[in-house]
Amino acid sequence: MAATSLVLDGPAGAPLQEQLAEALRGAILAGRLAPGTRLLSTRALSEQLDLSRNTVLNAYARLLAEGYLVGHTGSGTYVARELPERHASVRRAASRGPARGLEAEPPALSRRGAALAAVPAPFDLARGIPPGRMAFRLGVPALDAFPSELWGRLLHTRWRRSWGDLLSWAPPAGHPPLRRAIADYLATSRGVRCVPEQVLIVSGSQQAMSLAAQVLMDPGDAAWVEDPGYFATLGALTAAGATAVPVPVDAEGLDVEAGLRLRPDAKLAFVTPAHQFPLGVVMSPRRRQALLAWAARAKAWVLEDDYDSEFRYVGRPLPALQGRIPDARVLYTGTFSKVVAPSLRVGYLVVPEALVDAFAAARGFAGLSSPVLEQAVLADFLTQGHFNRHVRRMRVLYAARQDALVEAARRELKGLVDVEPTHTGMHLTGWLPEGVDDRAASARAAQAGLLAFPLSQFRLESRGRGALMLGYSPVPEEQMDDSVARLARALR
Predict the structure, then answer these.
(1) What is the tens place of the pLDDT at every residue in 235-245?
(2) Staple 423 to which of 189, 314, 351, 384, CB 3.0 to 4.6 Å?
(3) CA of 151: how far to CAs of 143, 148, 376, 414, 476, in Å?
(4) Is there a contact between 307 and 259 (Cβ–Cβ < 8 Å)?
(5) pTM above 0.85, yes or no
(6) Domains of the chain (ranges plus CATH)?
(7) Does a cis peptide bond (omega within 30 degrees of 0) precede residue 177?
(8) DSSP 8-state class, residue 426
């Protein structure tokens, strides 16, 4: 690639890294940089364009995250062979000649549709990273330890016994035996107050958030979201026409007093109190009480996302916020994606009895029901005791993998990334030295075939020290040393 072919002529005042990213993106979409083309190294390009190397690193990081570039360990950065779908029509039109009809003038979206299309989706962060490259990927369980033979036997038995029933429609709220099994499990393991009728089966926590926003909020209503936090909540709120209010997170979790200063009239608060995502802090009892008191006083609701509470390595899991007091204005959601497998796409939402009918109706309109066979097999997995045994095995396995990550990091990443152990979860926060751009560091990791998300990707308005999110659950112990060493080489 010739540097002289790039023209940095972005909007006046735009940062140079944005101008460079736009120039590279334009060259890719115009075909001047063909799929599979190897780009110059960041050092070489910075010298040819007389830019700082950090500027080039940041531009590459942006295009890696957007899916225009991919990194290959030891060989450099390349133009992706499959470009993002939202620009596929541009490439097809260029190859066929003048565009006509919808391609020449794309249909206008509604204001809400345009806003929703602009929200970063969770999978965008992993775009261009081959599925086999799992080192440090967030939210992925140990698929190498999945009980495949047992699951296959349960699947065969359930189909043989009940195939006639499983081919019919299922209730929108979910397979009744699974709802009963989940209610029993949550009562004993998490202290959740519920009966089976309050449990709705959803396709995951994302759908639970969307249902809560649509059922409980009107367009223009405000909702508190953690900052930094799980960015997919923005999609749920945008689809409902609601307004996200970023509330800072500190060592005690969501800062309720800050939320009261920002928008005391909010109708909903999205929180991860047991293990805040992504920082990993636990909401203090004082903050929990303040949050529940605000919800009762303001007649607002709290959506408690308990996404990985099963994995606590010291003592018992903390009781859920939902069961802290009777009649708490709390909806509780969890998922089997992080405990069993992501492709299962089965989660649950526990709603107060007064809201059951409304949420069941909304769930029906959102897609009738989740696949019945998977629900039936999962019910057997729970009721026969396999789920609890699997969780116990995973706790031991993940504790060992966390120890391996911490030990390797202290040996290989000294001065580069500060990694400390925690008592819960599936990932650790690797803090970078002050002044180091975590997006650039993430891009360097991606070039080494490692998916270490930058903490800044999860920030809305908050600022602070950069960090890399290091998921250890999918990395076998025997591969941890090599993965950490590759990260160290990339960051050096």
Answers:
(1) 888 888 888 99
(2) 314
(3) 13, 5, 12, 42, 21
(4) no
(5) no
(6) 3-104 (1.10.10.10), 148-387 (3.40.640.10), 396-491 (3.90.1150.10)
(7) no
(8) S
Task: Write out the two tokens for 139.
Answer: 């939210």
Amino acid in the structure at residue 249: V
Closest CA to 190 of 345, 342, 307: 307
Please calculate the CA angle 351-209-88 and round it to the nearest 5 degrees: 155
Check: CB of residue 136 under 8 Å from CB of residue 471. yes
Distances (CA, A) of 387 to 160, 180, 201, 375: 22, 15, 17, 14
Give pLDDT, residue 120: 63
Identity of the amino acid at 86: R
Query: DSSP string spanning 45-113?
Result: HHHHHT--HHHHHHHHHHHHHHTSEEEETTTEEEE-SS--GGGHHHHHHHHHSS--HHHHSPPPPPHHH
Angle among Cα 51, 56, 58 to the nearest 5 degrees reads: 130
Structure tokens at 209: 């958030």
Q: How far is it, in rounded angstroms, from Cα 414 to Cα 396?
A: 27
| Residue 54 identity | N
In whole angstroms, how far apart are CA 482 and each of 4, 452, 470? 38, 15, 14
Q: How far is CA 48 from CA 6, 40, 98, 488, in A?
A: 11, 10, 35, 27
What are 150's two structure tokens? Answer: 């047992």
Beta strands 69-72 and 222-227, pairing class: unpaired
Q: How many CB atoms lie within 10 A of CB 264?
A: 12
Residue 224: pLDDT band (50, 70, 90) is very high
Strands 253-254 and 243-250: antiparallel
Neighbouring C-alpha atoms within 13 Å toward the C-beta of 159: 8
Cα separation of 364 and 171, whole Å? 8
Give residue for tokens 């008592």.
423
On whether the CB atoms of residues 162 and 376 are closer than 8 A, the answer is yes
pLDDT at 43: 79
CA distance 145 to 131: 17
